[in-house]
Amino acid sequence: MRTNGVAERLCTGDASDREKFAAWAATVPHTIGNPLYHWTHLELRRPFGITGKVLSPATADEIWDPV
User: Fold this and answer.
1) Is it the case that residue 66 has pLDDT exceeding 90?
2) What is the pLDDT of residues 4-63, one digit of tens each?
3) Which domain does 41 fall in, by range?
4) What CA–CA distances, in Å, run from 56 to 14, 48, 67?
5) How far apart are CA 22 and CA 1, in angstroms?
6) Which of 20, 52, 55, 56 has its Cβ near the most Cβ atoms within 10 Å?
7) Is residue 3 one of the residues assigned to a domain?
């Protein structure tokens, strides 16, 4: 996230979990080809059962809300 220019408060600072999730969602599209992209979607699928959605700013709210 830091490499993507995300402010430190959204990485490890005092931002809310939802704000941090939104910052991660904005970063995920830039990780295609990196294992983090695949791990993110495995984590959405395995514990939460979320399939068929790619985490991005456009889907962050609909993915966060059911959780």
Assistant:
1) no
2) 999 999 999 999 999 999 999 999 999 999 999 999 999 999 999 999 999 999 999 999
3) 8-64
4) 22, 17, 16
5) 11
6) 55
7) no
pTM for the predicted model, two decimal places? 0.89
Q: What is the pLDDT of residue 55?
A: 98
Buried-exposed string 7-22: b where 16+ CB fall within 10 A, e elsewhere: eeebeeeebeeeebbb
The candidate with the shortest Cα–Cα distance to 12, out of 26, 1, 27, is 1
Q: Is residue 30 part of a domain?
A: yes
Spatial CA neighbour of 25 closest among 64, 52, 67, 57 = 57
Q: Domain tally for the chain?
A: 1
Distance CA(60)–CA(25), nearest Å, equals: 6
